[in-house]
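REVIEWER CHECKLIST
Item 1: Sequence provided? yes
Item 2: Single chain? yes
Item 3: Sequence as submitted:
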Amino acid sequence: MRAVIVAAAVAFIVSLLVTPVAIRVFTALKAGQPIRSIGPATHLTKTGTPTMGGVAFILATVVAYVAGHIALTTLPERQIAQEGPTMTALVLLGLFVLCGAVGFLDDLLKVRRRNSDGLSAKGKLLGQALVGSGFGIAALYVASTNGQTVASEKISFIRDISWLDVGKVGSVIVFVFVITAMSNGVNLTDGLDGLATGASVLVLGAYALIGFWQYRHWCADDTYTRANEYCYQVRDPLEIAMIAAAAAAACVGFLWWNTSPARIFMGDVGSLALGGLIGGLAVATRTTLLSILIGGLFVLITVTWVIQIVSFRTTGRRVFRMVPLHHHFELAGWSEVNIVVRFWIVAGLSVAVGLGLFYSDFLANVG
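Item 4: Structure as written out by the authors:
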């Protein structure tokens, strides 16, 4: 627990202090967020607000992981001390950083061109697929000394579903899909001040709790398994908890500056990074299908976007005034703050349902 607290505290402080530096730097570089003219008119007032702020909380999370890992190696209990980063940490932080790199390239092109056209949709998907494939292979093919891998060959809900074995190749494909879908989901959600940041805090916080709970009931822990038959077959759950907590705390520090009226936007560098990390956490904790509930807001916004696109291309009619969904409510007359708070409530309810199912499964099996 000490390592998780240390990582979260360091992440919050670093993010809180580094973000205003990023504001000054990106303002000086004239890296302002291009605003689409077809969007709500109120967004035009945000023209020139610096973007690419996700760099701040990515940096804060990596620094916090190092601090938390130092604290982790001082603990003699439960065989948790590591001489270096685990494969789980390399996969999760690698997804976080390199998905962010794809977003950074997208943001850079937008800033240079002075419009909202960055990477093409195909180019962005290709970048996400390459990142997902590389870390998917590492997650499936690089095992620890006891044979445990970061990801599983089975599709998981609250744990692996025994009869849904898709093999290693199939699992890599699923891994790429989850990373791509979740990163694009967070990217679509990032349209109002603080919306994606606050929702990500809730989802990452949920995965910090799940990771720590799995650590306390870990199959690799002999002191627990001698007294209990029910345990979680995952790899490095304490590091999962530490990284999730650090990312959540870093987002809280960033939210101080990103809440309405935002002084900086996270940009695609931030949204794609967060989505990639959340997808990686879902796979690493064996909660792939449960992530649909935990990340319910991201799923809702993605599904409504798909509905709008399909409807318009097939019938020429729009189901919503505008997508992503938060813009529909803006055009309906809701204030930005009301939309953000209400969407945070939806995100919180989704997280609560997901955690409730996770814990109820535990109670059902230990009872």
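Item 5: Key structural point noted by reviewer: DSSP finds 13 helices and two strands in the chain.
Item 6: Recommendation: ____
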